[in-house]
Amino acid sequence: MADYKDPYKVLGVNPTDSDEKIKEAYRKLARKYHPDKYADGDLKELAEEKMKEVNAAYEEIQRIRSAGSGFKGGGSSNSSYGGSYNYANIRRNINTGNIGAAEAELNSVDQGDRAAEWHYLMGCVLIKKGYYVDAQKMINTACNMDPSNSEYRAARDRLNMQARGYGGGYQTSNAGGCSGCDVCSSLLCADCCCECMGGDLIRCC
What we know:
Elements: H1 7-11, H2 19-32, H3 44-67, H4 87-95, H5 99-107, H6 116-129, H7 132-145, H8 150-165, H9 180-196
Helix pairs in contact: 2-3, 4-5, 4-6, 5-6, 6-7, 7-8, 8-9
């Protein structure tokens, strides 16, 4: 039991604190140790470890409260989802092609609640819109925030494989024109996203 860390102490809160106070403490630490802030710095690995610790602590508190009187904050019990947002509905919108609605819902999520699932789904939205470089960054961030998530890793690996197959990178929204290869690449990348989320855009792939 020497390795056990009290989740309340990790977040700097007390067991008697309200759900909202605990959620706010989590948000504050998530902003502090967000991987994007340390992407090019010497503290990147330390920040990633701290982020994992904070996520694990928040998840444990949610589990404790759910087993007791119930966690009033709502939402998923997985801390990588962050907050009480309906990510299942956002996934449905992405899978049915309602990208505008999915993006609007994602943009409404508070900055402090933009954890791994938010970055993954925003990456999927960006793929659908054809912004592949930005999509790769989002999905890479999701993997950094929740490295144990096989869905995120699969999407990242398939995107990287597609990028290598099309000259080492994707076209961005600033590129002029649209060739047949660009269209093919777009379809394959969108299919990659759909398959990772349980759908299938191109049945033969």
